[in-house]
Amino acid sequence: MDAERRFRRFRPDTTALIEKKLPQVERKRLETNIQFAKEQTAIASDLLLQEGSGFFQAEEGDVETFKVTQSAVKQAVDIGSATKSFDLSLSQFGPYRHNYTRNGRNLLLGGRKGHVACLDWLTKQLHCEINVMEDVFDVAFLHQETMFATAQKDWVYVYDNMGIELHCIKQLSRVLRLEFLPYHFLLVAASDRSFLSWLDVSVGQLVAHTHAKLGRLNVMCQNPSNGVVLLGTGKGTVSMWSPGVGSPLATVLCHNRAITSVAVDVGGTYMATASTDGTLKIWDVRKFDFLRVHHLQSGISNLTFSQRGLLAVSTGPVVQVFENVAKTFDAPYLRHRVGRTVTDLSFCPYEDVLGIGHDGGFGSILVPGAGEPNFDALESNPYQTKSQRREGEVKALLEKVDYKMICLDPTVINRVDVQLKPVKVDTLFSKVPKVTLLRDRKGKNSGVKKALRKQAIRDKLTRSVVREEIKNMIKQEEHSDVETELPATKKPYNVFYRFKQQN
Is the preceding peptide bond at 95 cis, omega within 30 degrees of 0? Predict the structure, then answer.
């Protein structure tokens, strides 16, 4: 039953909508198909998805889990997992921002003083390392690990994995934060002049350029489930933006003070917001409903969600990881002291690893149970070859989602507009005259050919009858609208009418 609940195809509100709109026979057929799909997916998951996500918990009488150090965790795991925890000392180029690829294999580092490096962090193989000789505010991988973008002092630059400059995008100036929407091929940039831009990297065109009028935009994240961009402001509000709309889709007042970080989980269900006063709040994004609040001793600088729902929080040099934040805020699941001021946090996909960017470089720690244990090779494959990467790029371009489809509720696009006036099909078809064929030469009146000729003539007559009926319906509606819109005729009013003698 748990497996079937995990692999259900529709949410409860979608099922209720189906029950209202569909006839009884079709509804039963759809429910049968949904139940069969859940059962088959649950059976396949038990056979194929053998890996499970692990957590460590303290036994009775032992210390609590947040008191377990990273050295103790490294001693308890195998050698391969222990090598995933490391530290890079780069104090002369910090503070650092970083970004992982979607398959979790490659790592991109960007130092504020111009240092940019791209590497395979599992094998520690360095792809490229350059110094751009100016400030770097943010870095982001594009649709493949072969290209990445850097937000530098004046403009945004695009490099390949060998460090060669490919493009200089002067349309994006003074950018502070970068986000990439993989299903839409959109590079989102937020500047210190309050401009929010969406660049389609597949065609190289700017699809939207909006003046948000929210001040310096240094807090930005994306909702992975629908592609909506969230901006945190100094007034304590979080606004949600889409490139197809020039104004915010929604604005939520979350805190009384300035917002320092915003994060949304992978499923697009929960949103975490942090303020300068050390307040951490959890929201239900679907209903914009407040769920939980937690107060920390100092200001929160960064937030991020893992694939399994763990929330990492940084306060100065300390990183804390919480679990089940939507239900309760107990003691942290894990705590780690970096020793330097943390500037960026990010969980590595499909790995129990948390990347930490700080003033002195970059650090990677082990967080058991953070990553998804089973990956879809057609979606993101950590072990893909060059041919698979090229094929995946072509497939992703063919399946690219239009930016106009970015909205708060992504399930709207698969619904049918049922507000149209029903047409009496039976009445229309009853007006089609009977078709009779005359005898012709031998060979042209065989059974199959005769039926096909009758069907073609019947379809042609049906189209003409339906066309005439629709024209008559439109004329009747226009006539009724004109009659209802005509105002009643009244005599012109004069102020002296009150002195007129009444009959």
Answer: yes
DSSP 19-50: HHHS-HHHHHHHHHHHHHHHHHHHHHHHHH--
Residue found by looking up tokens 């934060």 in the block: 177
The two tokens of residue 305 are 């969600």
Bridge-based pairing of strands 205-211 and 86-89 is unpaired
Name the β-bridge partners of 342: 358
Identify which has the larger pLDDT, 377 or 345.
Answer: 345
Residues 6+ apart with CB under 8 A from 101: 107, 141, 145, 349
List pLDDT tens digits, range 267-295.
899 999 999 988 999 999 988 899 999 99
* Cα–Cα dist 249/242, whole Å: 7
Mean pLDDT of 460-485: 72
- How many whole angstroms separate alpha carbon 230 and alpha carbon 243? 12
The number of beta carbons lying within 10 Å of the beta carbon of residue 19 is 12
Query: For residues 127 and 116, is the Cβ–Cβ distance under 8 A?
Result: no
Which pLDDT score is estimated for 11?
A: 46
Q: E strands within 446-501?
A: none
Beta strands, E only, 311-370: 311-315, 318-322, 334-337, 342-347, 353-358, 361-366
Report CA Rg, the chain. 31
d(Cα 11, Cα 489) in Å, to the nearest integer? 55
Q: Residue 64 has what pLDDT? A: 79
Confidence band, pLDDT 50/70/90 cuts, at residue 50 = low
Which residue, 195, 187, 240, 200, is CA-closest to 218? 195
State residue 180 phi and psi, 5-degree precision: -120, 130
171: alpha, beta or left, given left = phi > 0 and alpha = psi -120 to 50? alpha
pTM > 0.85: no
- Cα dihedral 78, 79, 80, 83 sign: positive
Sheet holding 125-131, edge to edge: 96-100, 106-111, 115-120, 125-131
The overall average pLDDT reported for the chain is 83
| DSSP bridge partners of 261 | 274
pLDDT in tens, 242-265: 999 989 999 999 999 999 999 999
- Residues with Cβ within 8 Å of residue 450, at least 6 apart in sequence: 437
